[in-house]
Amino acid sequence: MGSILNYFPDKLQKKIAEEILDKMEEIEEIRIRVNRPIILKFNESEKIIKYSISPEEILTTLQLICENSIYSYQNQISEGFITIQGGHRVGISGSCVIENGKVININYVYSLNFRIAKEVIGAGNNILKYILNVEENSIFNTLIVSAPGSR
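^ thats the sequence. predicted structure below, dont judge the formating
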C-alpha cells in the first residue's frame, strides 16, 4: 500500500497517509477530484478528507503514474484506466476526444480513482454451492456478474 502513496504529490501523500495509517488493510479506493474532497473507501465505510484538490495536483499525480511520460501511456489512458505496479488500477475521468466513434484521448483529467488490488479471502464461499457440481466432481459453466465491491 505504501507504494501507492508514491503516486501522489507530497502534500496529498501526507494527507492520505495520516488518514489510512491504522486502516492499511481495509483501504479499497482512493478518489481524488478537482475542487472536491478526497474520498477514502474502506471495506465497510468511507471517509471524506476535507481538502480541495487542485487541477495541478491531479496533473502531477497523473504524471507520477505515467512516469513523466503521459504520451507513452496514451493507449491505456484512452481505455479509461492505467494499471500500476501491484496490479492496482487508476480510473481516469475527463473530457474525451473521440475519433471514428472511439475514444483516442482524455483531455482535462478531473478525477482519478485508485482501486487497490487485494485478495478477499472467503469472498466466494457463499456461492460455491451454485458453481460446484459435487456429483460429477466438476464446475458448472458459470458467469458471475455483480456491482463493484459486492460481497
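Strands lie at 27-33, 38-42, 46-49, 81-83, 89-99, 102-115, 132-133, 138-139.
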